[in-house]
């Protein structure tokens, strides 16, 4: 995989290489070859290395798993197989084991991983890896509180989330600053043509050409969505006094606002008092 004929080395920096250790490399190949990741590989911004764990089985039958000590259902992937596969790779900044018991994968973790040069992903199957594999990795990641059949889909999620943060992969670097979670809030709703569809119109403000009004509307929409769907995010979102005013107009209580550490609402602007003009002496007074 790393011998992608399209790969042209990026002139400014080494590509971020993703090495996947898996029993099903063919499941991951489309994520590596197609769409934005495929193009980024062609431009030398990222590289993908698919490694079949069976190549390190160390036996004629390429058997990588065995029955669990203590009995019970299922099979467990051997630690010595994982160890040999890892030893075949160049040094990595992070070796990540996918497991439902891992740390929750978030945008903040993706941003951290995007700063590395070589990430290795260990994708489990069956009952997972022998627990001693944990000693070979730098971190364990879970993509949510559910159990899948294997780690490949989890690894593909992480590839998709991290690769798009590598500088140059996405054309407009500002495009992910407003993304859900990057700004601390959920993203605002987006619209495109047609302006009218089945009785639903695009909001007038987005068609008015007033960039300031569009920015204000988008911030309010992001706050409204986050308040309605993921109020937990507001606890760590950077909020301005204007956001506090928006959130309280949307029904957030003073207790919630103080729980989220929202800055105080800006005091209402004082009306400038009109000075009474000095009375013009009446001509008749003189
Ligand atoms: C059937 S699961 C093993 C589940 C394990 N017995 C447990 O309950 O924690 C097989 C493999 O799928 C992957 N996997 C399943 N769910 C996952 C999740 N939510 N996040 C990350 N990896 C997951 C892991 O690599 C795991 O080793």
TrEMBL record:
Q: Which UniProt keywords apply?
A: Cytoplasm, Methyltransferase, S-adenosyl-L-methionine, Transferase, tRNA processing
Gene3D superfamilies named in the record: 3.40.1280.10, tRNA(m1g37)methyltransferase, domain 2
What EC number(s) is this enzyme filed under?
2.1.1.228
Q: Where is this region: Disordered?
A: 234-286
Q: What is its main location?
A: cytoplasm
User: What catalytic activity is recorded?
Assistant: guanosine(37) in tRNA + S-adenosyl-L-methionine = N(1)-methylguanosine(37) in tRNA + S-adenosyl-L-homocysteine + H(+)
Q: Which Pfam families match?
A: tRNA_m1G_MT (PF01746)
Asked if the record carries the keyword Methyltransferase, the reply is yes
Record-linked CDD domains? TrmD-like
Q: Which GO terms describe its molecular function?
A: tRNA (guanine(37)-N1)-methyltransferase activity
The record ties this protein, via PANTHER family, to:
TRNA (GUANINE-N(1)-)-METHYLTRANSFERASE (PTHR46417)
Q: Which HAMAP family match?
A: TrmD
Subunit arrangement?
A: Homodimer.
Into which family does the record put it? Belongs to the RNA methyltransferase TrmD family.
Tell me what this protein is called.
tRNA (guanine-N(1)-)-methyltransferase
| Organism expressing this protein natively | Deinococcus aquaticus
């Amino acid at each position: 995989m790393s011998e992608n004929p399209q790969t042209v080395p990026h002139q400014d920096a080494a590509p971020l290489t993703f090495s996947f250790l898996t029993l099903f490399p063919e499941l991951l190949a489309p994520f590596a070859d197609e769409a934005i990741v495929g193009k980024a590989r062609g431009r030398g911004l990222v590289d993908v290395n698919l490694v079949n764990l069976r190549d390190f089985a160390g036996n004629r039958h390429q058997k990588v798993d065995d029955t669990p000590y203590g009995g019970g259902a299922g099979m467990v992937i051997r630690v010595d197989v994982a160890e040999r596969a890892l030893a075949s790779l160049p040094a990595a900044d992070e070796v990540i084991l996918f497991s439902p018991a891992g740390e929750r994968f978030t945008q903040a973790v993706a941003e951290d991983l995007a700063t590395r040069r070589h990430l290795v992903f260990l994708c489990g199957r069956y009952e997972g890896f022998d627990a001693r594999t944990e000693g070979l990795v730098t971190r364990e990641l879970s993509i949510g509180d559910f159990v899948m059949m294997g780690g490949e889909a989890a690894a593909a999620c992480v590839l998709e989330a991290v690769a798009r943060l590598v500088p140059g992969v996405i054309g407009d670097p500002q495009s992910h600053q407003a993304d859900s979670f990057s700004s601390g809030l959920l993203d605002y709703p987006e619209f495109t043509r047609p302006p009218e569809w089945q009785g639903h119109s695009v909001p007038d403000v987005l068609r008015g050409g007033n960039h300031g009004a569009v920015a204000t509307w988008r911030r309010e929409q992001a706050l409204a969505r986050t308040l309605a769907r993921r109020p937990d995010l507001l606890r760590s979102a950077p909020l301005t006094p204007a956001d506090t005013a928006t959130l309280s107009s949307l029904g957030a209580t003073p207790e919630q606002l103080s729980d989220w550490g929202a800055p105080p609402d800006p005091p209402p602007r004082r009306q400038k008092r009109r000075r009474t003009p000095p009375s013009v002496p009446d001509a008749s007074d003189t």
